[in-house]
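Here is the promised in-class demo. Please do not try to memorize the tokens; focus on the logic of going from shape to residues.
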């Protein structure tokens, strides 16, 4: 039997039932075995151990995912080769492949232009169309290969450029001595492969025009090389918002050098380019100008670059990389399409990691990771200019992330 009754709620703000059911049935017996349990209170040490275990499990899971994504290049501590030997292998392989592909494509384009210039007279002055064809071949080939190997070794492909980078401290001298013979061997290999692939005699060797003296040829080579090395200095070594476009500027410098010098000296400006075809065909009595001229050009560019740096050239035309938006206190506050550059650093007992997130925008400020000058440190070289880590270049407006663990 049950009796139901209702009454008004004296405390309307308290969520209780308005209907109470009184039951005449006897209450259920109390079970002495039922004991209410409460969660155990863990000690601070146990909480810290649990947190550390969670961090380590998360790190292990992250490393596992990274290894799955890049199973050919696992963490350096687990790699079969020590890091020093791996870096040497990267330098040798990268510079050889880059120099070889650059010169191979350039030689093939040059051979096609020479064969179609004047078949009856191989020594004839190049027609404007043939001249443009050769210049475009060298300019496009250097652009694409520098862009490919930008983050590997820096994409020097030229002993004169390597000398210029050693002089400014962007490449270490010992590394420069290792890169130099690699580029020379790659030039010989490119000339030999071109000779084997294409019909007819190899016609890409550098030689002076009949009206060009040896002294004139020497200075032509010097000034054209100085222009190239200055381009590398101010577009790749110096950090600014358009540093990532350095390969295009370098390609244009090579293009204009061949437009100006090919009908007079054949445009060497690169000892590896001049020496390779000479080994495959024959040496001229003035082969030395294609070595001395480019090296003098690198020295000339170094002197001018050092003078401008000593005079602090940035003060003459300031604000080239300023977005024009200043915060209080005089500090620049950079905006990239409404998004700010975000930098996040995490320190834990397991290790130290640094994540940098940046919008790859031509109006964005230079990345500080990219600003470290070290075209020869680590496995990254000049036009990358040697970063502790090589930034992952994304497309315009795309978020990119580089991490050091």
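The designed amino acids, position by position:
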């Amino acid at each position: 039997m049950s009796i139901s009754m209702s009454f008004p709620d004296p405390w309307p703000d308290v969520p209780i039932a308005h209907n109470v059911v009184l039951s005449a049935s006897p209450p259920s017996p109390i079970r002495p075995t039922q004991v209410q349990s409460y969660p155990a209170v863990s000690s601070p040490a146990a909480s810290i151990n649990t947190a550390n275990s969670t961090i380590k499990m998360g790190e292990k899971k992250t490393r596992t995912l990274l290894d799955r994504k890049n199973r050919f290049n696992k963490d350096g501590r687990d790699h079969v080769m020590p890091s020093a030997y791996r870096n040497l292998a990267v330098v040798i392989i990268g510079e050889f492949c880059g120099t070889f592909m650059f010169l191979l494509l350039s030689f093939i384009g040059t051979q096609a232009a020479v064969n179609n210039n004047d078949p009856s007279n191989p020594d004839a002055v190049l027609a404007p169309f043939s001249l443009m064809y050769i210049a475009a071949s060298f300019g496009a080939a250097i652009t694409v290969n520098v862009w490919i190997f930008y983050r590997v070794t820096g994409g020097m492909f030229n002993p004169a450029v390597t000398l210029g980078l050693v002089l400014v401290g962007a490449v270490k001298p010992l590394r420069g001595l290792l890169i130099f013979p690699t580029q020379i061997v790659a030039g010989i290999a490119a000339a030999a492969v071109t000779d084997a692939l294409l019909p007819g005699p190899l016609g890409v060797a550098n030689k002076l025009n009949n009206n060009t003296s040896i002294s004139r040829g020497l200075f032509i080579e010097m000034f054209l090389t100085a222009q190239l090395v200055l381009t590398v200095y101010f577009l790749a070594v110096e950090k600014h918002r358009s540093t990532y476009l350095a390969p295009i500027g370098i390609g244009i410098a090579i293009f204009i050098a061949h437009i100006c010098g090919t009908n007079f000296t054949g445009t060497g400006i690169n000892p590896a380019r001049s020496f390779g075809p000479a080994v495959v065909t024959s040496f001229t009595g003035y082969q030395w100008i294609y070595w001395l001229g480019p090296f003098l050009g690198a020295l000339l560019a170094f002197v001018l670059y050092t003078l401008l740096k000593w005079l602090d050239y940035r003060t003459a035309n300031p604000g080239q990389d300023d977005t024009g938006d200043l915060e209080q206190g005089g500090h620049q506050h950079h905006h990239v399409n409404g998004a700010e550059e975000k930098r996040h650093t995490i320190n834990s007992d397991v290790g130290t990691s640094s994540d940098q997130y940046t919008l790859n925008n031509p109006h964005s400020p230079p990345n500080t990771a990219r600003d470290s000058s070290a075209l020869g440190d680590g496995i990254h070289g000049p036009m990358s200019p040697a970063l502790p880590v090589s930034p992952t270049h994304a497309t315009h407006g795309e978020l990119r992330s580089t991490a050091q663990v």
